[in-house]
């Protein structure tokens, strides 16, 4: 009997040792994870348009306020599609679909009429949540605003798709998103860091700036003598069609500059690009003096230009040439791009 | 002396004021009643007046006394000057030894001084022997050639003396030169051979030559870049960052190329124009990042 107990004891000991040996040892090291492969999208930065993100507020709000016809409205938008239209009524109407609440603040009123001449649109609590706003900027899926046609707008946006039509004056700044401006009569100042800027059928002094987008302007005219048209982008293209300003500055770092129109007598036009090309499409009766500096690039023309001076040393190429009477002065500067002057 | 009359000595002492008060009183009383003593006193006074009048110049003048003191002082000074130097030291040492703490300090100082003197003498002797062995075969000039190119050809030399310049190639081997340099006795300036030329090692001015207006561009870019570089990762999202770096590379390339062109031909106005335009592009590019940050901050 004692012998059996000994055998059982020995077996129990062996079993315990084996169990401890199997389960007691540390967990075997896992195989190293395969390194993540960064996938870089080939889509250009400015191709990323309206963001998919949305704050989740689901309220729909609408408010209006009677204002002076020459009202100035200030507004900031965090995210959303913003559409502002001028109308004949002396009233501001704000509609937000699936977004934040609305507060209309009259910052200043007109002395004779007693109506607001300076209005600020801010964020209010949503109808459902009734919670206080954390920011003063609107957000929503769609933000529609109607303002008097003589209104001036001061807009700021983080990620917005902005469209403004038929107002007097617009100042718009976007971190990201396109800006489309139509029928603006009293001048435009627009800038976006990621997105395109389009200006159509507008007038006044115009300044357009984009970091990584294209700039397109057509059928644009000055409001008064001396109004300047300025367009600048870092790596986008600048396309100007029928821009009637007498003074134009268009500058791109790595994009092209395209001009299709006519140079006015006495005008001053500066087109610069570092790495892109400059293409001018002009009517056959143009009268201009060209001063082209094209570094390591090339200079080509379809017109019978009268070359006044020319230097073809590599890196410092330049040419001064006239066409017609040479009334307008056109300065063309590129480092390594090409310059083309073509007939319409 | 008759009766109570006083002697002549006592009368003289009375006249001189050397008698005691009691005796002076007795003499006075006696002279008043004694005609002989009164006569004697009168004679003595007459004699004193004659003597004092004769010796008045000597008694009333201080010159002889001052002269005497001067002579005494001179005699003391002469005697001191004639005292031997060793005797003076001995006297000083005796005065020092009289104080035990000063004596201990002085002994330590003496031992330390002796040790220092012995140590320095030993070093000098060793250096003298090494220098004598090393400098004996060395001829002038001082700057021999290393390899085939003389040092004078690569360094700025200026003459150490108004003597005419003379640059020659030495025939010394590098080992001897090494010995000469390592064993040179820098302390013994008298035995050291005088250099014929001195090598001017002052750093040359590396001031960059800027075009007119270029320096302000460079400084502005430097300031902007310093501010932007630290924060651009937080400001720009990846796609914008790629675009920014690409544009910056384009601008930098343009600046580099145009600077080279302008350096070759400073009169090339066209290249200058492109260069300035590129600088401005760079400033605008950096500014766009700052403006973006500002706008984002205003929308929070």
Task: Report what the structure shows.
Chain A is mainly beta. Among the domains of chain A are: 64-149, no CATH class; 265-344, no CATH class. Chain A is 6% helix and 54% strand. Chain A has one helix at 2-23, and strands spanning 59-66, 72-87, 91-99, 101-109, 116-124, 138-148, 152-165, 169-176, 179-182, 188-194, 197-203, 206-210, 215-221, 228-233, 238-243, 247-252, 257-260, 268-273, 278-282, 288-295, 298-301, 306-311, 317-323, 328-334, 338-343. Chain A has a 25-stranded mixed β-sheet that branches. The termini of chain A are far apart. The relative contact order of chain A is 0.09. With 300 residues, chain B is mainly α. Helix content of chain B is 67%, strand content 2%. Chain B is built from twelve helices and two strands, in the order H-H-H-H-H-H-H-E-H-E-H-H-H-H. Chain B has helices spanning 8-16, 21-33, 35-54, 56-60, 63-81, 85-97, 100-135, 174-182, 214-229, 232-235, 238-264, 269-298; strands spanning 157-159, 197-199. Chain B has a two-stranded antiparallel ribbon with strand order 1-2. The radius of gyration of chain B is 53 Å and the shape is elongated. The relative contact order of chain B is 0.05. The model of chain B is unreliable at 129-163 and 202-206 (pLDDT under 50). The interface between A and B is large, with 41 and 35 residues.
Tell me how many strands of chain A there are: 25
What string, H for helix and E for strand, traces the elements of chain B in order?
Answer: HHHHHHHEHEHHHH
Q: Please identify the structural class of chain B as seen in this structure.
A: mainly alpha
Helix content of chain B: 55-70%
Main sheet of chain B, how many strands, which sense, barrel? 2 strands, antiparallel
| Overall 3D form of chain B | elongated
> Would you report the number of β strands of chain B?
2
> What Rg of chain B, in angstroms, do the CA atoms define?
53 Å
Question: How much beta of chain A, percentage-wise?
Answer: over 45%
Poorly predicted ranges of chain A (pLDDT <50, ≥5 residues)?
18-55
* Structural class by SSE content of chain A: mainly beta
From the alpha carbons, calculate the radius of gyration of chain A and give it in angstroms: 32 Å
Overall 3D shape of chain A: flat
Low-confidence stretches of chain B: 129-163, 202-206
